[in-house]
Write a structure and sequence with these properties.
The protein is an all-alpha fold. It has helices at residues 3-7, 11-15, 27-37, 43-54, 62-68, 74-90, 96-109, 114-121, 140-156, 164-179, 189-192, 211-218, 231-249, 256-267, 282-307, 339-342, 345-359, 366-385. The termini are far apart.
């Protein structure tokens, strides 16, 4: 068997030979590398190019871009973004949503008693077929996906430190959307409510509908999964973490769980060089993970720390935890990740001590060690003031 065949062998096939399977390079990797090294591109342009090559979840809303470039005020940008979405929503996607719901209801009514069918699905009504001329108009759901992907991708392009003012500007746009009155309900909302996760919601703007699912999909494009470990990719991943931390700290939307993931990944897990779709040396992983964990502590640490009091403590606050333990060995990872354990005081104590350990590790760069020192100090301050 030649070496090229061996490289492509499944892991199970190589297990008996004691040779760990290494994923072969992907065709896109070379293209992404060229984009990262292209001296004619600035870093935001490199991030755009890599996003297209890797097929990240992203959008490119011209109004958001114009607003961030200073060519449009926030009120105009929000109007331009929101009005097409509101037109689709209030018309139930130009009648398509109601027609689809009524056809589904007719199928369901067949299997229920008349009384139950009436209660669950309402009385059968004649619903006109949608106008074929509207068939190509975008749905509410697709427009919301595109809006939030555009916001999150824009955040990836803005450096979280030197571009803090721009990230705050982007945050203002999201807050302005949230403050906008919700659009009029579509006709036959009773048929849609509880059965269509977009058209059946009456809080399009006040709940920032679909931002949560869009964030979750975007998190599939983190380094090691949808993204590799090129410098622009690491920066993009740090930047978008900083932005959702700003969303969280400001009370605009709660992505606090993502902050817990960041701290867990940096401080509680056993790292593996090849434990990703896109492997990387452990030291490189540590540098990025500790940087992102520090970003969360600096931006949203106080907000996250305050959440622990909402659910009470299930561990003694001074419960000793061995700093050598990782993963499921840690007590808060043994108890089904319930809310009270997720941000318990003992876990914050552990995080502070782990940051202090990392701050002394000479394998790490001085910049990352300083991030660890600062994060430990922040957490110690929060603990002392509690």
């Amino acid at each position: 068997m030649d070496s090229s065949s061996e490289d492509s062998m499944p892991e199970s096939a190589q297990a008996d030979r004691g040779t760990p399977w290494v994923r072969p390079p992907r065709p896109e990797d070379e293209k992404a590398q060229r984009a990262a090294q292209d001296t004619t591109l600035d870093e935001p342009a490199k991030i755009d190019a890599i996003a297209e090559i890797r097929r990240w979840f992203c959008g490119n809303n011209e109004n958001i871009n114009a607003y961030l470039a200073g060519n449009m005020d926030v009120a105009t940008a929000v109007d331009n973004v929101a009005k097409p979405i509101e037109a689709a929503y209030s018309s139930a996607d130009y009648g398509r949503g109601v027609y689809r719901a009524e056809m589904s209801a007719r199928q369901q009514r067949k299997y229920l008693s008349p009384e139950v069918a009436l209660e669950r699905w309402g009385a059968e009504e004649d619903v006109p077929e949608p106008d074929p001329a509207t068939a190509d108009l975008p749905s509410t759901e697709n427009q919301l996906w595109d809006l939030w992907y555009s916001v999150l991708h824009a955040a990836k392009r803005i450096p979280w430190q030197t571009g803090a003012a721009q990230q705050e500007k982007l945050l203002t746009l999201v807050q302005t959307l949230k403050a906008r009155p919700n659009p009029p309900l579509p006709a036959r909302f009773d048929l849609l409510k509880g059965k269509d996760w977009v058209l059946g919601s009456d809080t399009v703007w006040s709940s920032l509908l679909m931002l949560g699912p869009s964030g979750r999909e975007t998190w599939n494009d983190g380094c090691g999964c949808g993204a590799g470990w090129l410098v622009p990719e690491q920066h993009a991943w740090t930047n978008v973490n900083a932005f959702v931390a700003r969303l969280t700290a400001s009370g605009t939307d709660d992505f606090g769980l993502y902050g817990v993931w960041a701290l867990r990944d940096a401080l509680e897990e056993h790292l593996e060089e090849k434990g990703h779709h896109r492997p990387a040396p452990i030291l490189m992983q540590r540098h990025l993970l500790l940087t992102i964990a520090s970003v969360w502590v600096k931006i949203a640490g106080a907000y996250m720390f305050a959440q622990r009091a909402k659910h009470g403590e299930q561990l003694p606050e001074d419960a000793p935890v061995d700093l050598k333990k990782r993963g499921r060995q840690l007590p808060w990872n043994k108890m089904n990740n319930n809310d009270a354990m997720m941000l318990c005081t003992a876990r914050w104590e552990f995080w502070a001590a782990r940051f202090e350990q990392e701050a002394l590790d000479q394998e790490l760069s001085e910049e990352v060690r300083e991030c660890a020192r600062e994060s430990a100090e922040i957490i110690r301050g929060l603990l002392a003031a509690a």
